[in-house]
Specification:
Layout (H helix, E strand, L loop, with lengths): L3 H8 L11 H17 L4 H44 L5 H43 L3 H10 L5 H6 L2 H18 L19 H13 L4 H9 L10 H10 L2 H19 L5 H7 L7 H22 L5 H24 L2 H13 L3 H11 L2 H28 L3 E4 L2 E4 L3 H20 L13 H8 L3 H7 L16 H5 L16 H6 L3 H22 L1 H9 L3 H13 L1 H15 L2 H19 L8 H29 L11 H23 L4 H30 L1
Antiparallel strand pairs: 1-2
């Protein structure tokens, strides 16, 4: 993998070479600062002041050149506008065609200017993070806050890019007018939904969209899915993506996600009754619910590997296995066999294709709609989580059809079996396997040659630029750069080949994020899986009431994400939201304990709501941070970041469900406190780990 300084030099537009950030000089200066402080010839205050001055000069150079180029583009557009006015009187087709091409040429030059901004943006981000890493000082926070909020801010001049937007608008409007052969009196401003089909404009819009990619709510949901991207594609690679993309196939993947989440939670309100009807204790519901998660630990790995070769076949296999698993789950009642019940749930877990769903979005959906597709993945999961218990609440009957019992215990299984059968037919008819021949190569040498021009946008500007120290640093060989090496070994950029090698790539901060993810999944699984037993013991709730309670919890997911993604994330840093959410989750767990006063519905519902909502906020923010600190080597391959987070969450669910079953041997009166105690310990541990990690690293 070629070091960033060398990549920057290779990708510079030659005539603009003197106006790029001098990354090599600044990296050398950082090394000098380190040496000077070590020998005691300089103090930190001088270093901070001198480095700030250097950055100010570099940014000023970039901004002034950017304004100058915008002025040149504006002058060219003005001259073309004069020619266009002259053509209004005479409809000369050849001259109109020449004028249209001239506007497109201005658009192509604007695209170069956007790439210029990208490269400088990622250079600034990298050098700031490098400085923080070497000095253990949160200089980035100080620098961005003092510069970005100043009335004469040059950072704002670059990253608000008002001038660029005006140029894009002028080119789009004039091209639209030249394309209009009907003599319409309406402009693009009168018809905002008018879509101009011009390749140059499309490329510019895609680049500008990526430059302003922090559309908060969608972005927040997209990161919730933890669909990591290795590098931002060039326009050529985007065309490849467009060739592989098929809307119906994406819809089928989202439908698979929705149905699987319904399948997971539809049995929760009735699992205890089903276990008792087969002669087992009510707390065996933990094993019944958790057996699906046990199988998912293994299915996630083989589905992730299978998706390297195909998307269609894994989805077909998943649908068949889920159909069989749900059928066995439903038939266990008439066969009076707890073993058949558990085997059915294990089969359902073996059919978990969420790794394929994530991989399809990451590999086959074009960059310009990938954020929306990722948000759709999270929304489908949330909707399935709410619909599952709600459907269970509707299955209140008891009839026999051809000696097959249909009641509240078996109907969830039969309903899901029918659902997966219809899905399989739809999948067989409508899914289109993406072409593998045209798939962009992941070889480092090829991606080095093609990807750097647009590298800055997603990894540097998709988040509000430079606002967080945890942003994913593509330069995994930073220490080698400080030692003066321009090249790292090719192996250092290869994807992980096993769970063990993936684990070795995890930094302390990533391990803390995974611990937090484990904690919140454990706490949520305890709350959801034992809800039917707890509410039946303390409040004598019916299945319908339990289903309504769980459905209401599931319906909070999207509103909470809207509030956090659109408002709270704009007011506070992610780390602050993360820590606050952990504390509130801990408070929710504490309030759930049954200690002295009689246990009431109000206490259970309010504490459960606090715990669930804070855990949802925590999950979104945690995965947002995780997507930025995860090694770029974990963005692709079988053992990727998405798989690691899935395994951490699934293992947490398995342990939680086993805890419920084991605690049941102590009696239902002790079940609540015994299962909440590990949640409290893990939550406190995650808070301590969070405080220690960020105080140590930052």
């Amino acid at each position: 993998m070629v070091a960033f300084g060398k990549k920057l030099k290779e990708r510079q537009i030659q005539e603009w070479q003197g106006y790029y950030i001098n990354y090599k000089l600044m990296k050398k200066k950082v090394r000098q600062y380190v040496q000077q402080i070590q020998v005691g010839t300089q103090d930190r205050r001088y270093v901070l002041k001198d480095f700030s001055r250097m950055l100010d000069n570099q940014i000023e150079k970039i901004v002034l050149f950017l304004l100058e180029q915008q002025g040149h583009l504006a002058s060219r557009i003005a001259k073309l506008g004069e020619q266009q006015e002259a053509l209004q009187q005479q409809q000369d087709i050849s001259k109109i065609s020449e004028l249209r091409e001239a506007y497109r040429e201005v658009g192509r030059d604007l695209l170069k200017l956007l790439y210029f901004v990208e490269l400088n943006a990622v250079g600034l981000r990298k050098i700031l993070k490098k400085f923080d890493k070497r000095f253990g000082y949160r200089f980035t926070d100080y620098y961005v806050k003092t510069r970005a909020n100043h009335p004469y801010s040059q950072l704002q001049q670059v990253f608000k890019h008002v001038g660029i937007g005006a140029v894009v608008g002028a080119i789009s409007r004039n091209l639209a007018e030249l394309e209009d052969c009907q003599g319409s009196y309406l402009s693009i401003y009168d018809q905002p939904s008018l879509h101009l089909q011009d390749p140059t404009i499309e490329s510019i819009k895609a680049a500008v969209d990526r430059l302003t990619h922090s559309t908060n709510f969608l972005h927040f949901l997209a990161q919730h899915a933890l669909i990591l991207q290795e590098e931002l594609p060039t326009p050529v690679e985007e065309q490849v993506d467009d060739g592989r993309y098929h809307f119906m196939s994406l819809l089928l993947n989202l439908a698979n996600t929705f149905l699987y989440m319904v399948n997971t939670y539809i049995i929760v309100p009735t699992a205890d009754d089903y276990a008792m009807s087969l002669g087992a204790a009510a707390t065996v519901c933990g094993v019944v619910i958790g057996s699906m998660a046990v199988a998912q630990v293994f299915s996630s790995v083989y589905f992730s590997a299978w998706s390297n070769k195909s998307y269609f076949r894994p989805l077909v296999f998943s649908s068949i296995v889920l159909f069989l698993g749900n059928t066995m789950y439903a038939m266990a009642y008439d066969l009076n066999s707890i073993s058949i019940l558990l085997i059915g749930r294990l089969l359902c877990g073996l059919g978990s294709a969420r790794a394929v769903n994530r991989r399809y979005i990451s590999d086959c959906v074009p960059m310009k709609i990938r954020m929306q597709a990722s948000a759709g993945f999270v929304s489908a999961s949330a909707l399935g989580m709410a619909c599952g218990p709600a459907l269970a609440g509707l299955f209140q009957c008891h009839v026999k059809v051809f000696k097959i019992t249909l009641n509240q215990e078996t109907l969830p299984g039969w309903a899901m079996a029918v659902g997966w059968l219809f899905y399989l037919i739809w999948l067989w008819i409508s899914f289109r396997e993406p072409s593998r021949e045209e798939e962009p190569s992941h070889k480092p040498e090829e991606s080095n040659e093609e990807s750097l021009q647009t590298d800055a946008l997603e990894n540097g500007l998709k988040q509000p630029l430079l606002l967080s120290l945890e942003e994913k640093d593509e330069d995994d060989n930073g220490d080698q750069e400080f030692d003066g090496s321009d090249e790292a070994s090719e192996e250092s950029h290869q994807p992980a080949t096993s769970i063990a090698s993936a684990y070795r790539l995890l930094t302390p901060s990533v391990k803390v994020q995974l611990l937090i993810y484990f904690m919140l999944k454990y706490a949520m699984e305890i709350l959801l899986s034992e809800s039917s037993v707890i509410t039946s013991y303390y409040f004598r709730w019916s299945t319908t009431k339990v289903a309504i309670f769980l459905a209401c919890l599931g319906l909070t997911v999207l509103p909470v994400n809207i509030i956090v993604g659109s408002y709270i994330s704009n007011m506070f840093e992610d780390r602050q939201i993360l820590l606050a959410s952990e504390v509130v989750t801990c408070i929710g767990i504490l309030l759930s304990f049954h200690l002295i006063i009689p246990y009431s519905v109000a206490q259970y519902v309010s504490s459960g709501l606090i715990m669930f909502v804070s855990a949802e906020v925590l999950e979104g923010v945690n995965l947002s941070l995780l997507s930025r600190v995860m090694s770029s080597r974990l963005s692709r391959g079988t053992y990727n970041g998405g798989l690691l987070s899935t395994e951490a969450g699934t293992i947490a669910r398995v342990i939680a469900d086993c805890t419920i079953t084991l605690a049941g041997y102590l009696g239902e009166s002790r079940l609540l406190n015994v299962t909440l105690l590990p949640s409290l310990v893990i939550c406190i541990s995650s808070i301590v780990a969070t405080l220690y990690t960020y105080n140590t690293l930052y």
